[in-house]
Amino acid sequence: MKRTILLTLGLAALVASAVAVAAVSGPSPSAGRASSHREATLISEDPSADNTDLYAFRTPEKPDTVTIISNWIPGEDPAAGPMYYTFSQNARYNIYIDKDGDAVPDVTYSYRFSNGPNVAFLRNTQQSYSVTKTENGASTIVGQGLLTPPNNIGPRFTPNYRKLVTDQDHLLSDGALTFAGQRDDAFFGDIGSIFDLVAIRVGTGATGGGKDFFAGYAVHAIALQIPISQLDNGTNHTIGVYANTERPSPDGWVQVSRLGFPLVNEVLIPTDVKDQWNSTRPGEDSQYFQYYHEPILAKLLTQLYPQFGPYQETGRDDLVAVGLTGVPGLNFTGRVQADLLRLNMSIAPTASPNRMGVLGGDLAGFPNGRRLGDDVIDIAEQVVAGALIGHKLPLGDGVDAGDKPNLSVFPYEPDPASGFDNAKGVTTPTHTAAALDVHSRHAARRR
Ligand SMILES: [Ca+2]
Ligand SMILES: [Ca+2]
Ligand SMILES: [Ca+2]
C-alpha cells in the first residue's frame, strides 16, 4: 500500500523533476572507500555485494539489547540516478553471530531483497525483503514482505524522509527489531590522505585538519537489535560477529565479500591475497596469522615516518590478540583465530563515549565491539604504531567524527542526504561578479 502511494507521488513529481534528473543521470562516482570500501580487486567490480563496515554495541537507549549494523555499497552519491543504488536481488546478505568462541556461527540472519515496479525512467528504490534466521541447524522465516524506505531522492519524490524511515522499523517474529535501507555512511576518515602513502595533513594527525572523504556519501545498511538474553553464553558474555554477501553459483551460494573487524582486508592483508581473504570463512583465518604478526603497515611506517620510530615490525602478539582472538580480560573468546568483531555484552554502555574507545579508557567501545562514533582509523594507526606495547604516538587522520550526527533512535546511522540537496558542483555567481567587478574598475579608471 505504502509503495503504491509512493509510486503515485513519484509519478506526480516526475514531470517537475525530469530536467533535474536528466542532469544527474551520468555514471556514479567510483571513488568510494571506507574501512573496507573497494578493498579488493574482484569485489570492487561488484559494489552492491561489497561490505563496507560492521558495528556491534550494547544499545544505550535499550541496554538489554545489542545493536548490529552492517553496511554495504561504498560511496553512494545520493544524486546518482536514475539507476539509484539498491540491494542486489541476486545476493544473500548475512549477519552471523558466534556465541561460544569456535568461529562457527550459532545464529545467522539472512536477508533477500526484491525490487518493485520501476517509475518511468527511474529505478524504484523501495525494496521488499525477507529475513531467515538459522539457529542450531534449523532455518525459520522471521520476517516476510518487509519494506525498505526509498532512497532519499529529494523533497518532491521522497518528502518527510524521517517518517519514511521510521515507518520501516520492523519487529521480527523472534523478537529482534530490524531495518534495511539507505543511510548516511557513519564511517569517517581522510581516505584521500591515507591512501596517498599514509599522508598526514597536519602535525601527527591528532589535532584536526583532515577532510572527511565520506561526507555526503551514503551506504545501504541492515540494522538488527537483538535481546542480549538470546545471545549470552552465560560465561564470558562475548559474541563474535561478522557479515558477508553471497552470490549464487552452479555449486550453490558462494561468499564474495565479508567483514568483521574493520580495516583488516584494507590494511593488513596484502593486495594479492585480498580476493582469497574475501572468500575465506572466519574459522579458517589462522592462515592469515603472519599478516597480523608481521604487519605490512608497521614496515611502511618505518619507511615513511622514521622520526616517530622505531616500530615493532615482527612478533606483534598484540595485533593477533586484538584482531584474531580477542583481548584477554576484555573480549577474549579462546584460542580459535578468526576475524570477528568481538563484543563483551557484560560491559554497560558509556554515557559519554570516548571516540578512542578502549585506548581512551572506554571499555564499551572499539575494539570491544564497535560503535558508530568510534574513530577506528586513529585507533588502528596508533595500535599498529605500538600503542598497546609501550610506543604511544598521537597519530590520526585529523577527522574525529562523521559529517552528520548519529541518531539517538534506531537505526542510529543518520538519514542520508538527498540527491536534490547534493552540495557538489554548486555554481555560484562568483566568476560573473568578479568579471563585473573588473569591468566596473576599468570603467571607473576610464572615468
Ligand atoms: Ca559457535
Ligand atoms: Ca557521514
Ligand atoms: Ca580519525
Q: How would you describe what is shown here?
A:
With 447 residues, this protein is an alpha+beta fold. Helices cover 21% and strands 23% of the residues. It has 10 helices and 12 strands. It has helices spanning 2-23, 161-166, 191-194, 264-268, 274-279, 289-293, 296-304, 317-325, 376-385, 430-446; strands spanning 51-59, 62-76, 92-98, 107-115, 127-135, 138-147, 170-171, 177-184, 218-227, 238-249, 252-259, 341-344. The longest helix is centred in the first third of the chain and has 22 residues, at 2-23. It is globular. Residues 98-100, 102, 104, 106 line the site of one calcium ion.
Distance between the termini: 70 Å
Structural class, from secondary structure content?
alpha+beta
Please state the average pLDDT score: 88
Tell me roughly what share of residues is in helical segments. 10-25%
Low-confidence stretches: 1-34
Q: How would you sum up the major sheet?
A: 7 strands, antiparallel
Bound molecules: calcium ion
**What is the N-to-C order of secondary-structure elements (H for helix, E for strand)?**
HEEEEEEHEEHEEEHHHHHEHH
Strand content: 15-25%
Evaluate the radius of gyration.
23 Å
Overall spatial form: globular
Number of strands: 12
Assembly classification: single chain
What is the overall number of helices?
10
